[in-house]
Amino acid sequence: xxxxxxAYLDDSQMLTDESTFCxxxxxxxxxxxxxxxxxxxVLMPYDILMLKxxxxxxxxxxxxxxxxxxxxxxxxxxxxxxxxxxxxxxCPFLEEGKGxxxxxxxxxxxRTYPLARMAKRSKEKEGVxxxxxxxxxxxxxxxxDCKEWTVKEWKENEGIxxxxxxxxxxxxxxxxxxxSNIEHLTADQIEIFYMGCYDIDSFRQSxxxxxxxxxxxxxxxxxxxxxxxxxxxxxxxxxxxxxxLFEGGCLAxxxxxxxxx
Length: 261
Ligand code: SF4
Ligand code: SF4
What we know:
The protein is an alpha+beta fold. It has a domain at 5-165. It is built from 10 helices and 10 strands. The protein is globular, with a radius of gyration of 20 Å. The relative contact order is 0.16. The chain binds iron/sulfur cluster (2 copies). One iron/sulfur cluster (SF4) is lined by residues 25, 29, 31-35, 113, 140-142.
């Protein structure tokens, strides 16, 4: 049965940027690539954008070929997970003897391991307060013969910051859902969420190329920015979903709009 890395989370020690931990993952370790089997790998919006571009696919093709979607029991929101392959539930991007074939675009969770990031928001303070826990997978030999890192060094080494930045915007959306007290979304609302957060090429087509009034109401500079930069488009898509579903309006006019898209 696929396991959740959180099951091995060591919450006895809360780590911040200057905290140190010891870890080393190299191809010589006996466990090499074992962690790429039988995992429940939830993909965040930015993971999907990076992977589909790395593979030269559009988001719709990528989602269909490599992922499964379900509505989260607790959140009531669509959750995208990577479809594992074969009887041993291998990650589709793992090539035996070679390792990760999408290394430069690997998901944020693969980069962050053996750490797990917790992001705390409060109404009193702007932004996000983050801290980390260590995840001690029992079969992982990375904690033996290891190298010392600070959390900050690990984040830099693994290129985690852009993922955290985008995940925090997604987190704002999840928080807006909680604060709205809306428990269940309709099928149409689930589609809006899915498109704005996960299927970015469909969002582009619908919002930037389709006949939607919302685009005409938006600042032309914003439209130019999101047309040229896909990461900006994804940020916009997530905020568009937040406003539309949980704050009762469209992003451009800030009030209730009855447009499609
Ligand atoms: S050391 Fe841990 S993270 Fe590295 S390959 Fe082995 S199980 Fe995976
Ligand atoms: S994306 Fe790469 S690192 Fe992550 S589970 Fe798959 S093969 Fe392993």
